[in-house]
Amino acid sequence: MDIQSVGIVGAGQMGNGIAHVMALAGYDVMLNDISSDTLNAAVHTIDRNLERQVSREKITAATKAAAMARITTTTTLGDLGQNDLIIEAATERESVKQAIFDELLPHLKPSTILTSNTSSISITRLASRTDRPEKFMGFHFMNPVPVMQLVELIRGIATDSETFEACKAVVDKLGKTAATAEDFPAFIVNRILMPMINEAVYTLYEGVGSVSSIDSSLKLGANHPMGPLELADFIGLDTCLAIMNVLHDGLADTKYRPCPLLTKYVEAGWLGRKTQRGFYDYRGEVPVPTR
Ligand code: CAA
Fold first, then answer.
1. Quick check: 120 and 247 in contact, CB under 8 A?
2. pLDDT range class, residue 51, cuts 50, 70, 90
3. Residue of minimum CA distance from atom 24 in ligand 1
4. What percent of the chain has pLDDT over 90?
5. CA 82/CA 76 separation, integer angstroms
6. For the CA of 239, the nearest atom of ligand 1
7. Hey, whose CA ends up nearest to atom 38 of ligand 1?
8. pLDDT value at 1 more than 90
9. CATH architecture for the domain at 5-181
10. Residue-range domain boundaries for the chain
């Protein structure tokens, strides 16, 4: 199946990045969110990020204009129904994703491939509640989407090979690299990355190191572009905690227990960059460690 048009549900951090790369690759993009303010902010962010690529001479101004012209927005979920591919990139809560699929399903054409950008929720379980488990799979981008090379493709138990190949062709057209993961909790990237971040929080909790010494250690000692606590703030501490809980519940192994300090930050509403406070305080000129 040849994908020409893509509907994206959710215009937050991931959704606007996905719209950016899809439009740049030549797909017609319809971006949906319940909030028109979020949609307007997303279009503004895409424009700014494309402009950054123009100013660094990665793309031309004409390419940027063509990409922007391919993006339309809507607050009505059913409008997405005629697209060839849907990528759901809403909040990482199963009940939210479920409600979106329930509302969207009656509007979909029979051939539409339905995917989720979930970072950890079971694809097989999400698929089983739709009318098309064979045309359902995981399409997981990394943040920031325009920069990160990888897309994880996750097959549910029922996903057919035509669906997988169609999604793989989209990843190729984006100029990104696909890694295929089996459908087990948190797939590959987060199965490995989140326990490392959680361990960094334990290292802080136990007083082995400060925020600065932990981040410097991994940046300078292991050549990571960001320290694990800086990265946790970048991803969102609520998302990190949600993924640790999926690992803990899904694999039933105590080695995945979320650090109580991570839970405490989330309960405080200190969720990282998006709330201006997490392991660092972002309200001033430069980020300041909060411990
Ligand atoms: N859109 C377009 N381009 C962007 C961008 C954006 N949103 N953000 C950064 N860039 C570009 C910059 O223009 C710059 O391009 P050039 O190389 O042409 O100059 C390049 O990316 C590097 O950016 P900066 O110089 O501003 O900043 P940096 O060198 O500090 O890199 C970073 C920023 C790419 C985010 C880097 O710090 C990094 O790789 N961090 C780790 C990110 C990571 O691990 N992401 C995965 C998170 S896990 C995940 O996403 C899965 C999940 O489910 C939770």
1. yes
2. very high
3. 147
4. 98
5. 13
6. 54
7. 225
8. no
9. 3-Layer(aba) Sandwich (3.40)
10. 5-181, 193-282
Mean pLDDT of 156-174: 98
Expressed in angstroms and rounded, the spacing between residue 6 Cα and the centre of ligand 1 is 24
Under 8 Å between Cβ of 143 and 15 = no
In this structure, the chain runs to a length of 291
Mean pLDDT, residues 39-61:
97
Mean pLDDT on 36-47: 98
Using CB distances shorter than 6 Å, the residues near ligand 1 are 49, 52-53, 56, 58, 119, 142-144, 146-148, 189-190, 193, 225-226, 231, 235, 239
Nearest CA to ligand 1 atom 7: 144
Q: Distance between CA atoms of 32 and 145, rounded to whole angstroms?
A: 18
- Classify 193-282 by CATH class: mainly alpha
pLDDT tens track for 104-150 = 999 999 999 999 999 989 999 999 999 999 999 999 999 999 999 99
140 is catalytic: yes
Catalytic residue among 16, 83, 116, 119: 119
Q: Which of 141, 147, 177 to mutate to test the pocket of ligand 1 (most atoms within 8 A of CB)?
A: 147
pLDDT of residue 176: 98
pTM: 0.94
pLDDT for residue 92: 86
CA distances from 3 to 55, 98, 107, 163 (A): 30, 24, 18, 11
Residue nearest atom 43 of ligand 1, based on CA coordinates: 143
pLDDT digits (tens, 9 = 90+) for 8-20: 999 998 999 999 9
Ligand 1 center to 233 CA (angstroms): 14
Q: Work out the angle between the directed axes of helices 189-205 and 228-235 (0-180°, nearest 10).
A: 120
Does residue 152 carry a catalytic annotation? yes
